[in-house]
Amino acid sequence: MPAEQPDRRLPKLPTPAIRLPFRTPFKTPFKTLGPGSVSSLLKIALDVAYVLLMLITAVLLLLFVAALFIPVSQYNITFTNDDGGTQQPLTRALVLFGVGAFSAYFGGFLLILRNLRMIFRTLTMGDPFQPENVRRLRQVGLILAVVTAGVWLAQGMVAARLAPGVMDSQGLGELLTPIFSVLVVFVLAEVFREGARLRRESELTI
Q: Domain of life, per the record (predicted)?
């Protein structure tokens, strides 16, 4: 029998593992959801802002009630700009309009902060895709749209009736940023709605 020939093949070298940069999972240096995360810090900031805004709104409402009884006819109000100014007698209707407008403005943002606090509470719990968050985001978008429209109308009325030629009303270009913000909020609401739907389907599948 012929002698067995030795195996002259070269040994296979181990193939080094090559990791491409774009396949490396990105990890944030901080925690975004759950207790002790950035969401919990923002939740604390929203709580503080909510309390402060509640106090401001309460003071404005008290001023609105006081304006019903305090005489204001002996006072004047002055509107000025770089070219000059105009002076108008301060009437009770004007005071009620001004205080009421500011009360509605801060009250609207108080409702927005209330919904945002509830949303960030779910983020702190690590469970953001809840059906209630969809409703809350839609309320935030609706209230923001109403506040934006109210400010635009109020400033237009003041510029036309009280300070013509001194105060300019808001143009359509100045509404682009608020309108964009409202649209972003409604898009986020749809994102949360889709996330809640996927979560519900996964729970039913399990």
A: Bacteria
Torsion of CA 161, 164, 168, 169, to 10 degrees: 20
Instruction: Please state the domain extents for the chain.
Output: 34-205
| pLDDT tens digits, one per residue of 131-185 | 899 999 999 999 999 999 888 888 777 766 665 555 566 666 777 888 899 999 9
In whole angstroms, give the CA distance from residue 40 to residue 103: 29
Report the alpha-carbon distance of residue 52 to residue 49 in Å, rounded: 5
Retrieve residue 142's tokens. 């609706």
Q: Which amino acid is at 194?
A: E
* DSSP for the chain, written as a single string: -PPPPP--PPPPPPPPPP--GGGSPP--SS--SSTTSHHHHHHHHHHHHHHHHHHHHHHHHHHHHHTTTS--TT-EEEEEETTEEEEEE--HHHHHHHHHHHHHHHHHHHHHHHHHHHHHHHHHTT----HHHHHHHHHHHHHHHHHHHHHHHHHHHIIIIISTTTSPPPPGGGGHHHHHHHHHHHHHHHHHHHHHHHHHHHHHH-
How much is the pTM? Answer: 0.73
